[in-house]
Amino acid sequence: MSELKIAWLFPDTLFLHGERGNLLALKRYGEMAGMTVSVNKIDFATEGFDPGNYDIIFCAPGEISSFPAVYDWLLPYKDKLDEFIKAGKPLIVTGTSVGLFGSEIVRTDGSKIKGLGLVSLYATENNDVYGDDNWFECVYNGQQFQMIGNQIQMNDLVLTGAEPFGKLEYGYGNCGKNREEGAIVNNSIFTNTLGPMLICDPWLTVEIIKVAASNKGEEFKGIDYDMELEKKSFETKKRLITTKESRLVNCK
Amino acid sequence: MKFHLALWFGKFINFLISMVDKSRGTNLAGEKAMKIDPLMVSHFKGIDPEKVLFITGTNGKSTTNNLINHIFKANGKKVVSNLEGANLIYGVCTALIKASSLGGTVKADYYIFETDERYVPVIREQLPAANLLITNLQKDQVQRNGDPDYIYRKLKDAVSGGDLRLFLNNDEPRTKSFDDDGKTVVTYGAEKHAEAFNKDASYVTMACPKCHHKIAFDYYNTDGIGRFHCVNCGHSSNAEADYSVTDADFTNRKFKIGGVDFDMPYDTPYMIYNYSAAAAVAKELAGISLEDSAKAFGNFKNVGGRFEILKYKNKTIKYMRIKQENPETLQTSINVMANDPNRKMVCLGLCPLVDLIPHYAVSFYAYDCDFSKLVRSDVEKYFCFSDHVCYDTVNRFIYEGVDPSMISVADTEDVNVIFKEIEEAETDNIYLITWLHTYEHMEKYIKEEGNK
């Protein structure tokens, strides 16, 4: 039985929106695939962090005020994180924290917070919050599928060369003005979709685990799980999305 | 002149509303009057800012406001307040319109207002309260606020200047971090009580509001509130709050503050901090002794709708209202069910958020909540209902280890379906957790049909 090692970046600092659920999903599906799954919390107290020692790195949304401190801590590991992404390993970043991995975050008062520059985008903080469902189509690990999640948008994302992760069917996505949702670099995902996305959309979770297994040179043995519950959830939320009142016009 | 026109118009609206329904219209008069005089709140005469208290925070504002009013009135103080819960500037304005003379003079001993945490700066611009009580600042209303820091920054701006007396929750990290901002700081809190709990290492805590490192909790007296310290900068609860609930006895409904015995009006742990906050305000703002405060606690009746009991055929339905997007209120409900040793049915209706446009299917806050103790308790079956969110709710239980065969699901909020499922339970001990809208439909159904 192989080991699936997951790093969870700054869980108590980047602590918003019940993203713990995503770690539960990675653990559950990893174990269904016959792997032993370990989740290590990485934070300011961690010594000797080596991204290369992990198969998956996960980073949840946090308060923007925390980003300078997190940036300072992660900066010495920038090159190793870059190697991680270039090696095709999955770095999964959600919500506001995407800005931390772009070039910069421009705050509403005009001040700027540096980003790690690992994905070609920058973020601009909005005066108002926008919360909604989002529904998009994406391709990951060669598989095409649809996702539905939530979005609590504090920042707009401006892609400066990065490929969008998804094409919106509905939702605010990167900026509410086009159909771009998030960004993807190799097998690393930078998405506005937050909350327990990997529980609600397990078809992505399975592909992430496949990628992680493949990167280790291991055969993916398959997962014997009926996703009927998640499919029903997807369909009922799609019904809500397609019938509700919305002021978004970017997907019409 | 503009002020007087606005005032008389507001009083006229209040009069019309009182003809229809005295319980309605808590914002309307203020809202309409302030269209005539947008600075109307600042124009009332006779209000001493030193006698004005704003109560703000995520959870517990209404309860604290009601309890403080109750103590003050029981001790002979005349209070102007917005007890109906209209906590924007229009609600404050409406309360002042009601209390004022035709000339706009208000005569009261104290002015105590529940204020929405987003609007404290706006209200304080017109009514410069010298006292501010913060209950707690937690995850809530993310579609409006995004994250707690959004509110935190607004409140920080509101208290800048250091001219306030602050009443701060000693055991809530964000609130406690205002301790450098007040002219005077009074802390309130509670010692660890019998229903305090911890969460396992898979749960997150929060970022220190001062240095962004991890906040560690020794325990939670209620979710997100308990003895804490930052692992980096030393931000922490004081060893002892100025006013602290001790010796909490939920069985006999007693506790102490400063060695004085108090009756516990409600045996719910999350109200403990409301008790110490109210006692602190009574003593510090109005000079009401702990002994005299204590006399008022025994007959305190809180605002309704948070915890209700319905009788339906042979079933007792215990309804607990949660705020959607707010893990703390859901955790509180979970803890109440988990602490009930009797066999029970759990009906959980996490619904789409119906607030701003667009509505959305949110349930992620349930992953901040620890269901493990509930799952280990004696649950006959789980029922997950609600349009669009029910399947995600089922998954939350499955991820907590519940056998899927114990869970039934209905993609609806149709009360007929909900009651049918309840009828099929063997136990008569039914817990219902959902938003107010569904509960009100169920209550109406029982009145009209339920016990036929």
TrEMBL record, chain A:
SUPFAM superfamilies from the xrefs?
Class I glutamine amidotransferase-like
Per its UniProt record, what InterPro entries does this chain match?
Answer: Class_I_gatase-like
Name of this chain's protein: CobB/CobQ-like glutamine amidotransferase domain-containing protein
Question: Which species expresses this protein natively?
Answer: Aminicella lysinilytica
UniProtKB/TrEMBL annotation, chain B:
A GO molecular-function annotation:
zinc ion binding
Q: Which reaction does it catalyse?
A: beta-D-GlcNAc-(1->4)-Mur2Ac(oyl-L-Ala-gamma-D-Glu-L-Lys-D-Ala-D-Ala)-di-trans,octa-cis-undecaprenyl diphosphate + L-glutamine + ATP + H2O = beta-D-GlcNAc-(1->4)-Mur2Ac(oyl-L-Ala-D-isoglutaminyl-L-Lys-D-Ala-D-Ala)-di-trans,octa-cis-undecaprenyl diphosphate + L-glutamate + ADP + phosphate + H(+); beta-D-GlcNAc-(1->4)-Mur2Ac(oyl-L-Ala-gamma-D-O-P-Glu-L-Lys-D-Ala-D-Ala)-di-trans,octa-cis-undecaprenyl diphosphate + NH4(+) = beta-D-GlcNAc-(1->4)-Mur2Ac(oyl-L-Ala-D-isoglutaminyl-L-Lys-D-Ala-D-Ala)-di-trans,octa-cis-undecaprenyl diphosphate + phosphate + H(+); beta-D-GlcNAc-(1->4)-Mur2Ac(oyl-L-Ala-gamma-D-Glu-L-Lys-D-Ala-D-Ala)-di-trans,octa-cis-undecaprenyl diphosphate + ATP = beta-D-GlcNAc-(1->4)-Mur2Ac(oyl-L-Ala-gamma-D-O-P-Glu-L-Lys-D-Ala-D-Ala)-di-trans,octa-cis-undecaprenyl diphosphate + ADP
Superkingdom? Bacteria
Q: Does the keyword Zinc apply?
A: yes
Q: Which residues form the Mur ligase central domain?
A: 55-203
Coiled coil stretches, renumbered: none
Q: Where is the Lipid II isoglutaminyl synthase (glutamine-hydrolyzing) subunit MurT C-terminal domain?
A: 325-434
Which EC number(s) are documented for this chain? 6.3.5.13
List the pathway annotation. Answer: Cell wall biogenesis; peptidoglycan biosynthesis
Q: Biological process (GO) annotations?
A: cell wall organization; peptidoglycan biosynthetic process; regulation of cell shape
Give me the residues that bind Zn(2+), please.
Answer: C208, C211, C230, C233
For the protein in the UniProt heading, the enzyme class is ligase
Per UniProt, the keywords (alphabetical) are: ATP-binding, Cell shape, Cell wall biogenesis/degradation, Ligase, Metal-binding, Nucleotide-binding, Peptidoglycan synthesis, Zinc
This chain's function reads: The lipid II isoglutaminyl synthase complex catalyzes the formation of alpha-D-isoglutamine in the cell wall lipid II stem peptide. The MurT subunit catalyzes the ATP-dependent amidation of D-glutamate residue of lipid II, converting it to an isoglutamine residue.
Family of the protein in this entry: Belongs to the MurCDEF family. MurT subfamily.
Self-association and partners? Forms a heterodimer with GatD.
**HAMAP family given in the database record:** Lipid_II_synth_MurT
Q: What is the protein name given in its UniProt record?
A: Lipid II isoglutaminyl synthase (glutamine-hydrolyzing) subunit MurT
Name its species.
Aminicella lysinilytica
